[in-house]
Specification:
Pfam families: Chibby. The chain is of the alpha+beta class. The protein contains 2 helices and 3 strands. The radius of gyration is 37 Å and the shape is flat.
């Protein structure tokens, strides 16, 4: 006689038909509605853009501010790269000048030895 009866065995789990939502159309939400949030407080209007609230009188102001911020970031990166290139060139120039200063006394001494 078996110690455990069939009442302790697990029962098979029935299959789920719509588990992966195959064949069901995706929900189409207009994300622009969520990106352009505005708040009117009496005579002031605040717009939420790029993670911060901005005071603006019209919708185009926020777009202009975002465009200018992106342009500012690009210009800062270009400025940093130019500064880095300038530092690199100054280091190369200093190294070259020090090598030339080391060679000048040697050339003078060899020139004087040739004269004698």
């Amino acid at each position: 006689m078996p110690l455990f009866n069939k009442k302790f065995e697990s029962k098979p789990i029935p299959l789920r038909q719509n588990r992966c939502n195959i064949g069901i159309p995706a929900v189409a939400e207009d994300l622009d509605d969520f990106r352009q949030i505005s708040l009117n407080l009496g005579n002031k209007e605040l717009r939420f853009a790029d993670g911060i609230w901005m005071h603006s009188t019209r919708k185009g102001d926020v777009d202009d501010m975002l465009r200018l911020k992106k342009k500012f970031r690009v210009l800062e990166e270009e400025n940093n790269m130019s500064n880095l290139k300038m530092e690199f060139m100054l280091d190369l120039l200093a190294e070259q000048a020090s090598e030339l200063n080391e060679l000048k006394p040697r050339e003078k001494s060899t020139f004087e030895n040739v004269k004698k």
